[in-house]
From TrEMBL:
<feature type="active site" description="Charge relay system">
    <location>
        <position position="273"/>
    </location>
</feature>
<dbReference type="InterPro" id="IPR040921">
    <property type="entry name" value="Peptidase_S66C"/>
</dbReference>
<feature type="domain" description="LD-carboxypeptidase N-terminal">
    <location>
        <begin position="14"/>
        <end position="129"/>
    </location>
</feature>
<feature type="active site" description="Nucleophile">
    <location>
        <position position="110"/>
    </location>
</feature>
<comment type="similarity">
    <text>Belongs to the peptidase S66 family.</text>
</comment>
<dbReference type="InterPro" id="IPR029062">
    <property type="entry name" value="Class_I_gatase-like"/>
</dbReference>
<dbReference type="GO" id="GO:0008236">
    <property type="term" value="F:serine-type peptidase activity"/>
</dbReference>
<dbReference type="GO" id="GO:0006508">
    <property type="term" value="P:proteolysis"/>
</dbReference>
<keyword id="KW-0121">Carboxypeptidase</keyword>
<dbReference type="InterPro" id="IPR003507">
    <property type="entry name" value="S66_fam"/>
</dbReference>
<dbReference type="InterPro" id="IPR027478">
    <property type="entry name" value="LdcA_N"/>
</dbReference>
<dbReference type="InterPro" id="IPR040449">
    <property type="entry name" value="Peptidase_S66_N"/>
</dbReference>
<keyword id="KW-0645">Protease</keyword>
<dbReference type="GO" id="GO:0004180">
    <property type="term" value="F:carboxypeptidase activity"/>
</dbReference>
<dbReference type="Pfam" id="PF02016">
    <property type="entry name" value="Peptidase_S66"/>
</dbReference>
<feature type="active site" description="Charge relay system">
    <location>
        <position position="203"/>
    </location>
</feature>
<keyword id="KW-0720">Serine protease</keyword>
Length: 302
């Protein structure tokens, strides 16, 4: 089973770093105040305010900053400030040996899917959840509270209403997933991780419909769907179409491939690039129940 990081306690020190796109002090100021209100001490990494084109500093700066927080024994959690693009450029240069001796929570989503999957491949849990840039977004209060619950070791469970494409059933397995584009990009790399017997969750933003289809074809052809325990389909925000319509919505595209198998599927799960982005622990065993009322997800207690 993947290793679980110790729960946070008031007085613990946490870091905010930028492994991908740049961010300013002003953009994380609200997050610093919120984390302080949780009783945490916040350390800002050197990548906060650093700039190198669209990145939060050069690859070497972002790698060194993240490595420093991985190795620091007094840092109990690393929160990735935002996504964008860039984590995959540094992931193979990071050394997780000290982290393995002294695990800590690493949290984020979108481009941070690279870290979520890499850590799971190394058999460590991590958090797919809202990032500091979005801590004060309108309508995101429940998502932020779910992150606090997970960080502090409190119980969480989630529910979503019924969707006409849902396939009913019950599944139990470790959670794995995140951004569909990144999951495809990680295929065949050291950050790739198996899906067999696991509950996969998917989300994405700003993708063309044909490309969502192409990525689902790739997941299917590489066997990522065949032996799933279950599938949670989150937000597919702001999809694009060509002048000649593709002819299916994102959920209909996913159903084309998920429909080949018999595992339970739930659409409209609150995860992804929208204010409803509930914190999920990648690598933790969960149970999903899909019935006429919708879907319920809770972590196994045994």
């Amino acid at each position: 089973m993947p290793t679980t990081a110790p729960s946070l306690r008031p007085g613990d020190r946490v870091a905010i770093v930028c492994p991908a796109r740049k961010v300013s002090h002003a953009e994380v100021a609200a997050a610093v105040a919120i984390l302080a209100s949780w009783g945490l001490e916040v350390m800002l990494g050197d990548t906060v305010t650093a700039e190198y084109h669209q990145f939060a500093g050069t690859d070497e700066l972002r790698r060194a900053d993240f490595q420093r927080m991985l190795d620091a024994p007094d840092i109990r959690a690393i929160l990735c400030a935002r996504g964008g693009y860039g984590t995959s450029r540094i992931i193979d240069q990071l050394d997780f040996s000290r982290f393995a001796e002294n695990p800590k929570w690493i949290a984020g989503f979108s481009d941070v899917t690279v870290l979520n999957c890499h850590l799971l491949a190394l058999e460590h849990e991590s958090i797919h959840g809202v990032m500091p840039l979005l801590f004060d977004q309108a309508g995101g209060e429940e998502s932020l509270e779910s992150l606090r619950h997970v960080l502090f070791g409190e119980e969480v469970s989630y529910a979503a209403p019924a969707h006409p494409l849902n396939r009913l059933g019950t599944a139990t397995g470790e959670l794995v997933g995140g951004n569909l584009s990144l999951l495809q990009n990680l295929s065949g790399t050291r950050s790739d991780c198996p899906t067999t017997g696991r509950i996969l969750f998917l989300e994405d933003i700003d993708e063309y419909l044909y490309n969502i289809d192409r990525m689902m074809v790739h997941l299917d052809r590489t066997g990522k769907l065949q032996n799933l325990a279950g599938l949670l389909v989150g937000h597919f925000t702001d999809p694009h179409d060509n002048s000649v319509p593709f002819g299916q919505t994102p959920y209909e595209i996913i159903q084309t491939y998920a429909g080949k198998y018999n595992f339970p599927v739930a659409y409209g799960f609150p995860v992804g690039h929208e204010p409803q982005n509930m914190a999920l622990v990648c690598g933790r065993t969960a149970q999903m129940i899909v019935d006429a009322a919708g879907v319920r997800v809770a972590y196994s207690t045994t």
